[in-house]
Amino acid sequence: MKKLFLFLIGIGCSFLTSAQIKGRVVELDAKKKPVGLPNAIIQVKHGEIAMTDTAGNFQLIHATKGDTVLFSLTGYKTEGVIVKDDSKPITVILTSGVNLSEVEIEYISSGTEISYLNPIKTEILTERSLMKAACCNLSESFETNPSIDVNFADAVSGTKQIQMLGLSGQYAQITKENMPYMRGLANSYGLTFIPGTWIKSIQLSKGAGSVVNGYESFTGQINTELHDPANADKLNFNTYINQNGRNEYNLDFVQKVTKRFSTGWLAHASFNPLAEDHNHDLFLDIPTGRQYNVIKKYTYEGKKGFEARFGGGYMIDERKGGQLSTAHAHNDSIHPYEIGINNEKWEVYSKTGYVLKKPGTSMGLQLSYLNHNQNNYYGHSKYSGLQKTFYANYIYQGIIKTTDNSFKVGASYMDDVIDEKFQLFKYNRNEKVGGAFAEFAHNTKDKFNLVAGIRADYHNYYGLFFTPRLHLRYALNESKTVFRLSGGRALRTANIFADNTYLMASSRTWVVTPSDFSMPYGLKPEDGWNYGFNFTQKFKINYREAYITVDAYRTDFTNQVVVDVDKNTQEVNIYNLKGPSYSNTAQFEFNMEPRKRFFVKTAYRYVDTKMKYEQGLMQKPMVSMHRAFVNFSYETKRNHWQFDATLQYNGSKRLPYTQSNPEVYKRNSYSPDFYNVLGQITYLTKFPKAELHIYVGVENALDYKQQNPIVASEAPFSKYFDASMVWGPIYGRMIYAGLRFKIKELTWLKFKED
Fold first, then answer.
1. Rounded to 5 degrees, what are φ and ψ at 166?
2. What is the pTM of this model?
3. Can you tell me the distance from the alpha carbon of 240 to that of 250, in angstroms, rounded to the nearest whole number?
């Protein structure tokens, strides 16, 4: 108001008399060119005051030769000038008057952020969220998030799988840096191939996603962003060890070669040397093994809007499980039932982008190539797979008059070559998919948003198909109250072996009933629609932010590949859906900060997933209908100590039919309810340009264990053997510890940055 008042005074005076002195107040930019400074205050010692306009110009009415004039502006050093010639304009250069040393601004967060402006509801899990639990890899990163279920896949491989909206993880589109990641052979073990310390953030969105990312998202998208050499800490070292002897080592190293070119390494090695059998079924509770994993990344940020990110990675993962070697030590003629899982993968990628001169326009190109080799054995059964995938995606983005109306158009191409052998099955396929897409986004004063997209793809097996998707958002009370609606179609090829490797740890005979021999595996693709509603209300409790969010989603399949383990206890029957198949989910979530730096997150979720089997419409097995969750996290002042605790309630799950087995091999129709508690204490200390975190934690603190997880464990080569009936923890309580050491700046590299 003061500035406005002074400005009006200056304007008013100009109508009364002609200006005596004119001039301009400027600062010098990086190229030493003068740039006008608006709102600078000009005061003559006799009392006259004026203010510069938007171009930095001013005029004084009563100033005369010999007057002293002061020029000031917040953040700039005040300058004084003696008027020597009142007939010539005055140009005054102001310089920054306050040279601040480095200022570090800290924002305390619970670790999960929700955007209120994005028409697609997206949760962002930051590094703070990932630090709440061990998070050795991506599959364990969701232990403290209520939207994702994390379960052991079977009783012998130690693999954890996720469920989203009541469906297994392969129905979510899981990407790495917005490029396809979890596809094909990676579906069962791919989540364990991304170490937790590599992850910068995870973006989690439910329901139909954007058409820009493809057509395979049924239940949502999970995108993982890894540390970028352009802005990551210079060095990040992490080591971890747990009660089972699993030990891990991660080293991230970044070097800024020039001002615009950076490079970095992400390296991981882990070992699981101990063979333990706590439940005395003569099977290893967790397989032994090792993993070596490395990624080399390059980043270039050009002067004229050009950016490039490219690199490559290599990973080898080996696991050995099954019966202990002592199980048949008394009889050399009988070999133990052994399990081996071996993955080898390498990939290269590039992402380039260019910002065009026209405001709001840019274009980008994503390219990647993947080679994944998998060789497994389960007793006498062997599985091998080789996948080679090429992916290209071109995106052009622009605006229509204003940024309130924007669009994306582009084209993509995917080439999948997958060869698989399992028992007597041998399948080869080469999927080639070319597609084009268009997406329009509209914004009306941040109150109403619309994102409408459609893509057309031509698949060499399925022909031409269209994927429409729509997202709507309406906000009230300055975006404190947000309603969202979404809907869209998705389609995918079911990888009947790679999606269900957990069933290979059994004596079940696989029976594939083809419906169209021209299709991969002789089966039609999975095709469905997802519809969703979300309500989010932000408010304050005791002057601190809190919010509730309510989700309701339904996934309807028009076609699906049914994996039937109920028809016959000795078979895995695979066939195309004939009838309804759907999954309804509803979730309520409440988050608050009752005291400063003390966060509470609570959630309840209901899931109803049913499918038409040959025996009739039944609940899908191994899915909890009810699940509840509460997470507490607290940080002391200056963040030296961090405390995190999570309580999970896991409701009963329907188990596959076993009533035709002999009495000793029968299992109940439903699993019992159980609770799981995990917690972690972290000590953090800061040094100049560095941080040290030391943490100790516990998983399954209540030591709850599923009894007899393996059917016929004493007779693994009998027709009743089945290690896939896992609904709860196997190992019991697990204590772990580790440390993280970060160096934000390396002074001996600084000369190269300059």
1. 80, 0
2. 0.82
3. 9
